[in-house]
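Continuing the series of single-chain predictions for the mutant panel. This is the parent chain; the variants come on the following pages.
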Amino acid sequence: MRIRGERECKDCGTRWSYYETGTPDCPNCGSLHSVGVGDRAQHTASTAALDLSPARNLLGDGDGDVRAAAERAAEDCRTFTRQHGFIDAGELASLDETYVGALELRAVADELARAMRTDDAEERYFLALLGGVDDGERPAPTEVPESLRAARGLAAAKAVQEYRSDAGSYLDDHPDEAVRAAFGTLGEHRKRIEALDGDVPPTTADRLVRVARELGTYLRAGDESALVTARDRLSRLG
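Parent structure:
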């Protein structure tokens, strides 16, 4: 959406950046009576951060309730990803690993919360995600259990879908037909993964995300090599 990033309180006259606070409440007096000032810019980003410590706390010293931790992690990841966006005050942000990881953790946690039983490999993978996603860390593709690879695939497809949507809005203001075409090709690969219910090799899922990041790098920094690399990866996605 397009919003005026600077606001002015009608009650006390304080000015602040909505882009930084994400709220129309006056930071000085708490008043909800404010007006936007200045130019409008596209903005979909959120100030919300992902905090998985409440879910980790349910595990205690390792003998806690994995199912309860999975339910809480899924809820927190769902809230975080629903609010997340990639245009910050008119500038396109990167497709960050925390967002991608939150989508995967949500999918994995939902699986574990619903399952009648889980094996050790699945629980270890869930714990690895839970321990690192809010710091932008995910296990390597080789560590994904066969039973959970669909979760990684669907997370990649969803992340690319949302990033491509915001990138498309950004391109409305900064036209570039070459990168728009590349995003279109990326979208076709995303649809194929969705049609397979995410059941693709984890390396394929990660390559999809990597292409989206490289296209974003090209748009943000004008790095021609990033566009060339992204096109090359797309040609090898099959």
